[in-house]
Amino acid sequence: IAGITQAPTSQILAAGRRMTLRCTQDMRHNAMYWYRQDLGLGLRLIHYSNTAGTTGKGEVPDGYSVSRANTDDFPLTLASAVPSQTSVYFCASRTTGERGEAFFGQGTRLTVV
Amino acid sequence: SQQGEEDPQALSIQEGENATMNCSYKTSINNLQWYRQNSGRGLVHLILIRSNEREKHSGRLRVTLDTSKKSSSLLITASRAADTASYFCATDAKSNDYKLSFGAGTTVTVRA
Question: How many domains does one find in chain A?
Fold first, then answer.
């Protein structure tokens, strides 16, 4: 693995189903983020984590949960998917020491039908 | 609401022309960052400017920051077709947190 990896790349999901989007980084970054991107709305922060063991809510956290059991992994779970959660989801990470640039995964395109 | 707001929403220019886009934000920041996104891809970091800096250059990119007006601009000089992309500003708010908040972006089309 080099950088930050998201899985799956795309998914069609029936409404009401549970889904976990995976995100793994190998850069030992402390901070990790989940964003959703919708046309005309840019990237909106769902949840974030400053370091392993801690998480925080972003702008649009409802319907989503995250965990940060270790430094490398930051899964995003939709407990019961709804059509309004159809979006492209991006995971990102960065170091906290320099408060520098974030590195992004390639995204997960999720369609809830 | 989102921290950063880009202006304009869309921009169409001829190859060789300059492209300027602006970002306004709401709270005090540690730094402001600009990213580029090619269609269907993840975001790529372009340049970071810290709150105590006023201007920064990187190749054909020039970023300015005015903390009194809570605004930043990104200038791409001598644009190329390959610069066609969406550009986003992101703010690292001054706090104990490490949230990074993005705006809605500017879509730039460079015509050959």
Answer: 1
The model's pLDDT over B82-100, given as tens digits with 9 standing for 90+, comes to 999 999 999 999 887 899 9
Check A59 against B101: CB less than 8 A apart: yes
Distance to chain B for A81, nearest Cα, Å: 23
Task: Say if the Cβ atoms of A44 and B41 lie within 8 Å.
Answer: no
Contacts of A56 in chain B (CB under 8 A): 97, 99
pLDDT(B1) > 70: no
Task: Please provide the CATH number assigned to the domain covering B5-111.
Answer: 2.60.40.10
Which residue has tokens 């992309």?
Answer: B85
CA–CA distance from B80 to each of A33, A60, B7, B17, B19 (Å)? 32, 36, 20, 8, 10
* B75 beta partners: B20, B62
Q: Cβ contacts (< 8 Å) between A50 and chain B: which residues?
A: 97-98
Q: How far apart are the first and last CA of chain B?
A: 36
Query: Across the interface, which of A41, A48, A59 has its CB nearest the CB of B104?
Result: A41
pLDDT confidence tier of residue A43, bands split at 50, 70 and 90: very high
Question: Tokens standing for A8?
Answer: 């799956």
Summarised one tens digit per residue, pLDDT across range B30-65 is 999 999 999 888 999 999 999 999 999 999 999 999
Residue A101, CA distances (Å) to A3, A64, A98, B68, B94 in order: 13, 25, 9, 23, 15
- Predicted pLDDT of residue B3: 67
| Tokens representing residue B36 in the block | 């580029």
